[in-house]
Amino acid sequence: MQAPEPDAAHQAAQEAAAARTADFLGRRQEQIAQRWADAALFRTVFTLSRDEAVEAGKAVVDALSTVAASRRLEDITAPGFLPVREQLQRMAASLARTGATAAQIADEVAALRGPVDALLREEFEDPAGDEARQCALALALLMGTLRLVVMETALSSGQELIERQRQQLLEVATPVIQLWESVVAVPLIGTLDSARSQVVMENLLDAIVAQRARYAILDITGVPTVDSLVAQHLMKTVAAARLMGAECLVSGIRPAIAQTIVHLGIDLGTVVTHATLADALAYALRRQGVVVSSGTPGGAGPQ
Amino acid sequence: MNGLPSGSPAQVPVLALGSLLLVTLQGELYDGTAEQLQSDLTERIAHSHVTGVVIDISGVEIVDSFLGRILAEIASSARLLATRTVVAGMRPAVAITLVELGLTLPGLDTALDVERALALLGHGSAPAPSVPAWEDA
Question: ipTM of this model?
Answer without folding.
Answer: 0.76
